[in-house]
Amino acid sequence: MRTTVMRPLSFMILLGWLAACTESTPQQIAENSLTPKVLVIGIDGIRPDVLMDVTTPNLDKLAAEGFLTNRAMTGYPSVSGPGWSSMLNGVWPNKHGVTDNSFKGERYSDFPDFLTRIETIHPELETFAVADWAPLGRSDEGRPTISDMVDFKHILNGYEMGWAEADTKSVQLALEQLETSNPDALFVYLGNPDEVSHKHSSIGAEYRDAIALADQHVGLLVKAIQDRGTYAKEDWLILSSTDHGRRLDGGHGGNSEEERTIYFLAHGPSVVNRESYQDSTFIVDIAVTALTHLKIQIDPSWQLDGKPVGIR
After folding, report:
1. How many helices (H) and strands (E) does the chain have?
2. Is the pTM of this model over 0.85?
3. Are residues 23 and 32 in contact, defined by beta-carbon separation less than 8 angstroms?
4. Backbone torsions φ then ψ of 64, nearest 5 degrees
5. Residue 21: per-residue pLDDT
6. What domains sit in the chain, N to C, each tagged with a CATH number?
7. 3-state secondary structure (DSSP) of residue 62
8. Which residue(s) pair with 292 in the sheet?
9. Which helix H or strand E contains 153, and what residues bound it?
10. Distance CA 103, CA 101 (A)
11. In terms of Cα–Cα distance, which of 110, 109, 103 is closest to 134?
């Protein structure tokens, strides 16, 4: 039998390799064996200081267990068209081309939404989107913000249905998807708070009640995830944010701090809470964070402006 003699240098290399293999903690090893999934909950027009003042037990629990900053920033102009485009696409208006709610000048073919990127790279993954602000999913001219490549896309009309009712229906559709299918990435839009604030031209009681109702919807979505039979084998990242803040009179669109300051929340086994994120988080980070969590490598040629925030 041939005897192998290990030279000192080879032995040291082997020791270094073995040490590297044992650096991961049991928790990290367990997390890496889970299937990554992501839910993005977008709640329109939320002013962070009001959110902090409203009783929102479901968002509070997610924040306490994860990461929350109420000092994130959206772009300018601080209106929904460019805001949601930046959140979903991961780039600023100078790239995606949307500068108002007409969506004219969109360049979504060059900078698609994160669900469409998922479908392009990993078509085997199941994607889902629901929104009751119709321009996000339908367009008479050009491409919609959320493309038709998404596996399951439901577009409702909050103006026709009533915004509270439309949000409820949107959540019901998402719940059905979580209960009966195997989605990997979901986007759920809730429009009622923004519309209530505009209707009453304030950030008063009606607006606060709408935020509290949105929190109840968040609770239903979280419960549906946790009730999944496969939940123990899944690594769910829940992200929630908004497209813009607002003034005391309920308006927005300008470049003021109250109009551009937003919240950013991340929750899940892969989330880390770092103080450095508090003042360096932007709306464009959401799409990149979602893609990164799903193990999709960000290609520099995509020219994305965001970065992953709040995850390992």
Report:
1. 13, 7
2. yes
3. no
4. -65, -35
5. 44
6. 35-302 (3.40.720.10)
7. helix
8. none
9. strand 152-155
10. 5
11. 103
